[in-house]
Specification:
The structure is a single chain. The chain is mainly alpha-helical. It folds into three domains: 117 residues, Glutaredoxin, CATH 3.40.30; 98 residues, no CATH class; 155 residues, Serine Threonine Protein Phosphatase 5, Tetratricopeptide repeat (Alpha Horseshoe). The protein is 64% helix and 6% strand. The longest helix has 21 residues. 31% of the residues are buried.
Length: 438
């Protein structure tokens, strides 16, 4: 993809070897954007950031800019070479194919431009390969390990194994000192259940929280980070036992189990996580078990009147203080949008959960009785709140059950609800249904 150089980043045509040659000839770093076609933040960057004139001016002058789809052709090799763990991933690479800086995720213009400055600031630092060689030779002194960890973090590379090996090399007394405990906050991705780092945190929670007091207020608590990191590792390793440990820890620390509303919110979150995990690992039997167990509870048992009452209660709880003048609504950006959202927040969330379960069954099962059950979930989702996503799911299930004409009618409604969004596939699905080729 090549953008107009006068209106944003000019991504060069050609292959990776030609980028390396160009970078060497011009004495520049390569800016490499690895993306996927399904990645929302990638699409947002293409639309909102890369075309920006200021971004283009800076990146075109400083770098050889190159884009590659991480799931196609040469992009697959580059994603493997640079150990990509999420999208979009950005790598600043020298002509010797050494990564000097890396980052991930969608970023607004100001933050994205700052990445260029960080890349230049780290350009002359010791290459990662040199650190790796010294580490593999047995070097473990504190100054070296800290420098190695910093470099790994700068390059968006995993550092948990290095961190845990460092802890193992320390005398027991040195693991409890503030200097070591501070590393848990500086390198939070090490907080994974059953790791040495997590054991250290558990044994020194009070002191870690005291050290954290001087950090930014928006820093997530270590326990929340531990849950997040463990869920991510369990997903990567397809480890169901580790995954369930993380979910149990999340539920334990997310709120009081004596509070019925907190308990229900925890169950909802756990359901979503479990559906995603068991679909990811391909465990259809467990997926069916989780969906049946959850759906037979609140989602299918509450009447529409009960749902409206829950909406009203949640609206009053969240919006009441502002509407009564107890809080200042002028401090809330887009207050009216927030107010409109909370008028049906509870029922909308439940409709989304029903849709999630129904779509998971559409993708995973072929048995008519299971598809009929999924259809009942999708039907209830649509009855609660019609949205493009659940209309689309309902239509797909009807089609898979052989009810093609009904499917076409509901998919037509999905197209109308979807509008003319650029990334919508509703119209394409409708045409396939009409042709009988879905």
């Amino acid at each position: 993809m090549q953008l107009n150089p006068t209106h944003g980043i000019n991504f060069e045509p050609g292959d990776w070897q030609s980028m390396l040659a160009k970078a060497k000839h011009e004495n520049k770093l390569i800016f490499l954007d690895l993306f996927t076609s399904w990645c929302g933040p990638c699409q947002w960057m293409d639309k909102e950031v890369f075309p920006n004139a200021q971004v283009g001016e800076k990146y075109n002058a400083a770098f050889v800019n190159y884009k590659a789809d991480a799931e196609k052709g040469e992009g697959q090799e580059l994603a493997k070479k640079f150990n990509v763990r999420g999208y979009p991933s950005y790598f600043f690479v020298n002509a010797d194919e050494e990564v000097v800086f890396a980052a991930m995720g969608g970023r607004p213009v100001e933050e994205f431009m700052a990445l260029a400055d960080e890349a230049f600031a780290t350009r002359s630092e010791k290459p990662l390969a040199a650190y790796q060689a010294e580490y593999e030779s047995g070097k473990r002194d504190a100054a070296f390990i800290k420098a190695y960890l910093k470099r790994l973090k700068q390059l968006e590379q995993p550092y948990t194994d290095v961190f845990n090996a460092y802890l193992a090399s320390l005398p027991a007394g040195q693991r409890q000192v503030d200097e070591t405990l501070q590393l848990l906050l500086d390198y939070p991705k090490v907080l994974v259940l059953n790791s040495r780092a997590y054991e250290l945190y558990q044994a020194n929670q009070a002191r870690v929280h005291e050290l954290m007091g001087s950090m930014q207020e928006n820093q997530p608590p270590p326990m929340a980070i531990a849950v997040m990191q463990t869920l991510r590792q369990a997903r990567q390793q397809k480890d169901a036992d580790l995954f369930e440990q993380a979910v149990a820890l999340m539920i334990e620390h997310a709120g009081s189990q004596d509070d019925s509303r907190s308990k229900e919110a925890n169950e909802q979150q756990a359901f979503g996580l479990r559906m995603d995990f068991y679909r990811h690992v391909g465990n259809t039997a467990k997926l069916i078990e989780v969906a049946n167990q959850y759906m037979d509870g609140t989602p299918m048992s509450l009447s529409l009147a009960d749902l409206h009452q829950r909406d009203k209660e949640q609206y009053e709880e969240v919006m009441g203080p502002y509407l009564r003048g107890e809080r200042d609504s002028s401090t809330i950006e887009k207050f009216e949008e927030m107010r409109a959202y909370y008028q049906s927040a509870y029922s909308s969330a439940l409709a989304m959960q029903l849709n999630q379960g129904a779509w998971a069954f559409y993708e995973a099962v072929d048995e008519p009785e299971l598809l009929e059950k999924a259809l009942s979930w999708a039907k209830r989702s649509v009855a609660i709140r019609q949205q493009a996503a659940n209309l689309d799911t309902y239509a797909h299930l009807l089609y898979k059950l052989g009810r093609r004409q009904e499917a076409i009618e509901w998919q037509t409604k999905a197209v109308v609800a979807d509008g003319d969004t650029d990334h919508s596939s509703s119209k394409e699905v409708l045409e396939k249904m009409k042709a009988g080729t879905l």
